[in-house]
Amino acid sequence: MLLNTVENVKNNILEWKKQGYTIGLVPTMGALHAGHLSLIKKAKETCDKVVVSVFVNPIQFGPSEDYDKYPRTLDADTKLCDSEGVDIVFAPSAEEMYGKGQRLSNDTLTYVCPPFFYVNKLCGKTRTGHFDGVCTVVLKLFNIVQPDKAFFGQKDAQQVVIIRKMVNDLNVPIEIIQCPIVREDSGLALSSRNKYLSDDGKKDALVLSKILNNVKLCYKKGITDISSLKETAYAFLTDKHDLEYLEFVDKNTLDDKIKADDSTIVLIACRVEGVRLIDNLYLGEC
Ligand code: AMP
Predict the structure, then answer these.
(1) CB 112 within 8 Å of CB 142
(2) How far is the CA of 276 from the centre of ligand 1 (A)?
(3) List 33, 36, 130, 241, catalytic entry
(4) Which residues form the pocket of ligand 1, taking CB atoms under 6 Å from any ligand atom?
C-alpha cells in the first residue's frame, strides 16, 4: 500500500500497535535494487509488519550534490515492494515531511546533529551537514513509524555507527539491524548511483572492491602497518580514479587505527566519471 501522508501512516501504525504487531522500518531514497531488497527481506523475516520509506531527503544533500538528478522510480519501487509483501511504502513529499513553506535550514528547522567526532571524518569531511540531515530524517521516520527494528546497510557503515550513537544517546527504543553489503558478481557494491556510470565506468569502479579485497589479503598475510597497506592500495589507482579517502578505523567507534587489527573497518570513497562511490570491508569478523 502506497501512502504519502504522515497521518495515513500513523493511523495504520496505531491499528498495528493495538494488534500487538512488531514493526520493521527500512528507510531508503528509492531507486530500489537488490541491496535494498536484502534489507526488506531481513525485515520481513523478523517483523510482523514492514514499512519501506522512499524519500529523497533534501536536507542531506549539499548544494553542489545530486539532489535534483537523483534517480526517482517510485512506480517500480512500489511494485517491487508489493511483490516482496511490504505492508506500507511511505513516499512523502518534502513539504509533507518538513511542512509547507518551511525553509530547509538550521536557522529555522530543528536538526539532529550527531557529535563532531563522528561526522568530521570519512564521508562527513567533504559532505558538510550530510549526517545532520540523515539523523534528522531518520529520527522523524522513527517517530512517525515507531518501529521495533530499523534496517540499514553496511554499505553506509559510517551512517550506521552514527545512527546507533543517536539511538543510544537519545534513548530511542529501536533496535538497529545492520545488513551486509550486496554486490554484483564483479564485486561492485550495488548503489542507486551506479546508474550514472557508463559500462567503462562500471569497470573502473571495480577498483574500490579490488583495493579492499587486496588490503584484506595483505592483512591476512600479516601486514598490519597502515602506511604499507595504503601504499599497496594506491598502486591500483589510475587517472580514471579520483580517490577521496582510504581510511582504517574502529568498526564501532570510528576511532582511527594505529595498526590494522580484527576490529578494523577499511573504508574507501572514490570518484569515477565524476560519480562519488563508497565501499568498505571488515578485516575481522562482522
Ligand atoms: P539509500 O537508498 O541509498 O539511502 O539506501 C537505503 C539503505 O539501503 C541504506 O541503509 C543503505 O546502506 C542500504 N544499501 C544501499 N546499498 C546497499 C547494498 N549494496 N547492500 C546492502 N545495503 C545497501
Answers:
(1) no
(2) 15
(3) 36
(4) 28-29, 35-36, 38-39, 152-153, 155-156, 179, 181-182, 189-192
